[in-house]
From TrEMBL:
Protein's UniProt name: SnoaL-like domain-containing protein
Domain of life: Bacteria
Source organism of the structure: Dokdonia pacifica
Pfam family, any one: SnoaL_5
InterPro entries reported in the protein's UniProt record: NTF2-like_dom_sf, SnoaL_5
Length: 117
């Protein structure tokens, strides 16, 4: 896939809430997750570990109140996507997310994702 095709598919899947499919279709097995602001998930390597991170986060979420995935911006081997979501936690509180995710692509696969918020 070209970087444009990866970006189009990524945005489409994210907007549909198909996060598992994103990892299965678009990520390289050795992908790297970078989120320095996170106490628990700041630096994760490998798709298995990234999926485990998502599963751990899902354990505390009961629903999604709102989600907005912006259009992708592509620059060479990078894709940047604005992403907003408000989730409802098990304790009833709402947790708003407002971030930009930057993906690096090599040979048609995402090799890293970095979250800025």
């Amino acid at each position: 896939m070209t970087n444009q095709e990866v970006a189009n598919r990524l945005v489409s899947l994210l907007r549909d809430g198909k996060f598992e499919t994103v990892y299965d279709e678009l990520f390289h097995q050795d992908a790297h997750h970078i989120e320095p602001q996170s106490e628990y998930f700041s630096d994760i390597k490998g798709i298995v570990a990234i999926k485990a991170k998502d599963a751990a986060m899902q354990e505390n979420i009961t629903g999604v109140e709102a989600m907005e995935v912006g259009d992708a911006i592509i620059a060479k081997n990078y894709i940047a996507i604005p992403y907003k979501m408000t989730v409802i936690l098990k304790d009833g509180n709402k947790w708003p997310l407002d971030e930009i995710i930057v993906y690096k692509i090599e040979n048609g696969k995402i090799i890293s994702e970095q979250f800025f918020y």
